[in-house]
Amino acid sequence: MEGKKLYRHTKSVCPECTKQIDADIVLDVMDGKDAVLMRKKCDEHGFFEDIISRNPKEYERNQKYYHDYITIENKDNIKDTGQGCPHNCGMCAEHKSSPCIAVIDPTNRCNLACPICFANANAKGYVVEPTLAEIKQIMAHFRNIKPIPPVLLQFSGGEPTMRDDLVELVRLAKQMGFVEVLLTTNGLKIAARNGVQLMKDLMSAGLDCVYLSFDSADDPEVYKKTRGVNLLPQKIRVIENCRKAGFHGVLLIPTIAKGINENGVKSILEFAKKNHDVVSGIVFQPVSLCGRIDNEQLRELRYTTSDLVQTITEATGLKDTYIYPIPASANLTKLLAFYDYMPKFTMAAHPDCGFATIMSIDPKTGKWIRIEDFFDIDGLVKWADDVWALVEKGEWPNMADKVVGPFAKLFGEKIGSIINQASDFAYRKAIKAYFMAGAVRFMRGFSGPITDFIPIMLQPKLETAASFFERSSNMLVSSMHFQDVYNFDIERVQRCLVHYGVIDPDNPKKVLQIPFCAMNSIHREEIERKLSKENISVNPSTVTAKAKEFVEKEVCDK
Q1: Statement: the pTM of the whole predicted model exceeds 0.85
Q2: Which of the following CATH numbers is that of domain 5-62: 2.40.160, 1.10.8, 2.20.25, 3.40.50?
């Protein structure tokens, strides 16, 4: 498993038997170019190699953003299988972070039979559908996580809109204290004749965001390959119906598969730009590879986040732009939560999990403009790290620092009176003032996205963050590269911020809490088979035919 350079040793799983095995992340040559590779060997099933990144320089830069943060104190459902991580999920003691997003599958039923789906009852032959009481039990489990419960709840599946009580579930989630409620959907029900009313009902219940699968903005053939039926008219109708309902929180979720739709990234970005009154961002997801694939096929099919970064920068005309990995903002999010009592969470994911950036739209030309034209991102990130270090030590900032000058010019001279008070809340106020004073140094002028960012610093709430994207010229462009058994890295799983909650099939009084990639790669099939309440016999081609009929009847009529 040697190469030009060893980045780190880790643990992975054998793609054949899923046994925990050793793995190395190395720099070596593949297809004539340097690449970052995962190499691992199972004593029984042999050697496996996968591509982690085709841009070693970018990969090495990303690795400096490791952050551990507060983990879960009340882990009360640990199972020692004797196989180690990721087989002991419960939540187990090896996890190194707290989840930001709780995921619940209200059903695994679906009105499509997508070839690339990882959770499809139509293919598995059984239905898993927790009761309302069981879903409430799962929500309560997440809300009771100590010391920091997740602030976001995402309904996934399956297709959540197959539940007749979805509106009630959204309302229940809000009542139980989740700040943001997200819906992952293929959009068929929202695109239907009564889709506008459905969205109004969901909005009334408290829905904040729609995660809309969106594999192409202009090519029907892509949908035929990824979803089994041309869904392009349906996707456009979803946007129209959300607009009619007054909903502004759609995130486009393109699954990018090499050789199928990687050339459509530019058109997806342009579609989002043109519909920015409804679309607040894009979360690209390089496809997870299922089934048995040999090493040669793996090289041909694998599409990495490094490939995606290159495609995005070329598509926007912002070449050579560095897009920061998700955990780069970890200390900034911790700091904003600390000094203004917003719900606590942090983006302390593994740097290989994905990336996020803000892209702005020039109101005059309609072209993309880079966030770096307005901020010194490196400086701002480093400043947040420095200030958070003070908080961790409990030290008071030196308010005689030269950073006060530009702050005073922008926000007034009251800073002195704030920092000299020694009341219970003075420390938080002082940290807030100190951070904002220093942050001014990293703003390049006071125009564009800077004018939208200042309210977040002044009042760091999820609502103001949402407005930054939904009611401005700024757009979230990000990626989550979910793992499969070929590139599975236990270090990533142990820092996962997106956790499934499911009823423990062996003890219905308990809830299993499982990191996203571990659920889909290791645990889903066994858990769902045990929880299944109904066996079905459905031919996926029949489901696809019904989907075509539905699209033609409910979506294409004008």
Answers
A1: yes
A2: 2.20.25
